[in-house]
Design a protein that fits this description.
By secondary structure, the protein is mostly beta strands. It has one domain. Helix content is 4%, strand content 57%.
Length: 321
């Protein structure tokens, strides 16, 4: 499948670093029932390993052991002959390219949970460009693309219709999660516009290190921006103000309201408070999510009440790392 575009295949060349990572992610939502989740998997080809699977949650359970469904399986062997978007994992997750850069089929059937989903692009691919050395090192190639997810999920004896805005991303590069700084990865999508950003740092304000604005049919990378947390919940942000300017000079200001999310510990070295967001931008609702990355030791202090969620350590004051 070397005739596929770079965003739909494994890297043409990779280093011998054991932590070389090839990742895939699609979001899933049903906002009217406050259901949110994702299909995510990543390859560690130099280890012969595949991790990942589907995860779903709603307000009835915000941990891996009590959420709607969790099978983000570690330590699956790399299937023989696998391709990045033509794969079937041991836990039954199957993903296939239907039309390069435009449509992907996703299926799953295990433990009485079944998924039959199709992701369809509604905007172009955006390749993340950043001057942040840490991000450049961990993801030499990283794209986002806005789309819609359609299909059905069968769980707990009921069938859930899915028809939602959905972001996908894919990346490759050596990724060492121990070195990952605190910050947020967030986005929002509506019928005719979308945005995405990564903001790094602790405390109430973080600097944007990459992202895009897609509006009036034109996509442009961000030139600058800030994310201000105007209200914290128990573990992470509850309300956000995002302000940014893209390289075309277009400015945006969006406010976001986050749910309690899922306390995701799949990365082991970092905890992620993974929340659905309802954004307001230009008077229009944009649905999305926020992935709040937090070093494990820091999150433990937050969870145990040693420091508040918005605490900024003296070592990180004025720094994004």
């Amino acid at each position: 499948m070397n005739n596929l575009p770079m965003a739909d295949r494994f890297a043409d060349e990779r280093s011998d670093n054991p932590y070389w990572n090839e990742s895939v992610w699609f979001s899933i939502s049903r906002p009217e029932e406050k259901i949110h989740g994702f299909v995510q998997y990543y390859f560690r080809p130099n280890m012969g390993m595949l991790n990942g699977g589907p995860v779903l949650w709603d307000p009835t359970g915000t941990y891996q052991w009590n959420c709607l469904y969790y099978n983000w399986a570690h330590l699956q062997a790399l299937p023989p002959g696998v391709e990045k978007f033509n794969m079937r994992a041991r836990n039954s997750l199957t993903v296939k390219v239907v039309e390069p850069l435009k449509r992907y089929a996703i299926s799953y059937d295990k433990d009485g949970v079944a998924m039959d989903l199709t992701w369809q692009a509604i905007g172009p691919v955006h390749e993340l460009q950043t001057g942040d050395a840490g991000q450049q090192n961990t993801a030499r190639f990283h794209i986002e693309q806005p789309g819609r997810m359609n299909g059905t999920i069968r769980i707990d004896g009921r069938e859930i219709d899915i028809d939602c805005f959905s972001m996908r991303d894919t990346s490759f590069g050596p990724r060492d999660y121990e070195a990952l700084a605190s910050g947020g990865y967030f986005w929002g999508i509506a019928a005719n516009s979308s945005f995405h950003a990564i903001a790094m740092g602790e405390g109430t304000e973080q600097q944007v290190i990459g992202g895009y604005i897609f509006k009036d049919g034109e996509m442009s990378s961000l030139a600058s921006g800030t994310r201000k947390v105007t209200e914290f919940g128990k573990y992470g942000p509850r309300r956000i103000l995002f302000e940014a300017t893209d390289k075309l000079g277009r400015r945006m200001s969006a406010t976001g309201r986050l749910d309690d999310g899922l306390i995701f510990t799949g990365y082991t070295d970092h905890t992620v408070i993974w929340s659905m967001i309802e954004w307001t931008w230009d008077g229009t609702t944009h649905w999305g999510d926020n992935q709040e990355f937090c070093a494990l030791t820091r999150f433990r202090d937050i969870a145990r009440g040693v420091i508040p969620a918005g605490h900024q350590s003296s070592a990180s004051a004025g720094s994004r790392h």
